[in-house]
Amino acid sequence: MTSSWTTGPAVSLIRLAAVGVLATGVVAGVADAESAPTGRSLVVLGDSYTANPPCDGLLTKCVDTDGTGPRACLHGPSSWPAQLSTLMALDPEDVENNSCSSATIDTGPVTSTGQEVPGRGGYTLAQEALAAAKDGAFGPRTRVVAIQLGFNDAWPRDSTVTADASRVVTCVFDILEGCDENAVAQGRWPDVDAITGSAYAERIRKVVDYVKYYAPNARIELVGYPEVAPEGDSVWCFDLFGLGNWVQPRARAMVEFWDRLQTAEREAAGLLGIDFVDVRPATAGHGLCSNDPWFNGLLDPRPDHSGLPLHPSAHGDAAVAATVYHHVAQPN
User: Fold this and answer.
1) Is the confidence at residue 312, as pLDDT, over 70?
2) 140 and 217 in contact (C-beta within 8 Å)?
């Protein structure tokens, strides 16, 4: 994200975001046509699966000089947006990548009842879109707006429970309890039944409407997540130092979370009239428990030695980038 300022759509978005609303239609403060931004060809909004910073948090610290804590917006050189921009033959100045680790659709650090939830505070979809509007990224020249978000969010919306790193680690290494359906009932894992297409659509609708209005020629691509585990599986793995997998056989709720998110994204795209990019087929057979994982373990030298654990390797990101590129290259 940058701090540059332009007039036009950004002004409207700032005013709306200030009250927590992004909308289309009649918006105050629209600049005249001469000062309105023409836009950038590719705009990317997403989380750490999108940004995929080149750090593991242990040997290589994730240090972002422009943001601390959960507001880290480091971008890996082999992340799928970087590879996608190469496939699209775009100059760097024609790309707006506002993806950030810990980003969410709309899950903030405080619930509606005023309860503060430690560890939250990453950028939201509206905030990432706001930064893009400030940079003049939305306009008639904008060809693609790609969004990849949801796994950091609370489900249901106002819950204090998210699939954050600490809960993943706890579930993976909990021999006695594991992370089956009982974890949801015990408040140790998000409620997978709350992850629906209608719920997902309502949470991103206002930003989607805004993008449709100010980037009328853009294809809005809701990008799914790669296959971390085969659909319907109940096993979760975590590779330690390349020495072998730690296997959690009671991980049904963890796998179900990703399955439900995939279905919700597909259904939400249909409800909103935008595209869904299914990257699971391109990454199938390369999940966490596979013989050829396209995900990073903990200092596992097989995928990428330095990369966020449980995040895609460069190979995995290449498959995602190629799938998105193939999708956007097709005629509407």
Assistant:
1) yes
2) yes
Tokens 């449709």 correspond to: 212
How is residue 18 written in tokens?
A: 């200030």
In the prediction, which pLDDT does 54 show? 82
CA angle, 159 then 164 then 168, to 5°? 120
- Give yes or no for a contact between 314 and 77, defined as CB atoms under 8 angstroms apart: no
Helices (H), 70-181: 80-87, 125-134, 165-173
CA–CA gap between residue 246 and residue 259 (Å, rounded): 22
Q: How many other C-beta atoms can be found within 10 angstroms of the C-beta atom of residue 158?
A: 11
C-alpha distances out from residue 327 to 41, 48, 263, 330, Å: 15, 22, 18, 6
Amino acid identity, residue 43? V
| pTM listed for this prediction | 0.87
CA angle 222, 278, 237 (to 5 degrees): 110
Alpha carbon distance 187, 182 (integer Å): 9
Q: H helices then E strands: how many in the chain?
A: 10, 7
For the segment 277-295, the average pLDDT, to the nearest whole number, is 94
Q: What is the dihedral of CA 305, 95, 97, 131, to 10 degrees?
A: 160
Query: Residue 115 gets which letter from DSSP?
Result: -
162: its two tokens? 């998210």
Contact between residue 268 and residue 328 where contact means Cβ atoms under 8 Å apart: no
Q: Which tokens in the block code for residue 194?
A: 């709350």
Are 152 and 107 spatial neighbours (Cβ–Cβ below 8 Å)?
Answer: yes
- Cα–Cα distance between 164 and 299 in angstroms, integer? 19
Alpha helices in the chain (DSSP H): 9-18, 48-51, 80-87, 125-134, 165-173, 182-185, 197-214, 252-272, 280-283, 314-329
Task: Tell me if 183 sits within 8 A of 108, measured CB to CB.
Answer: no
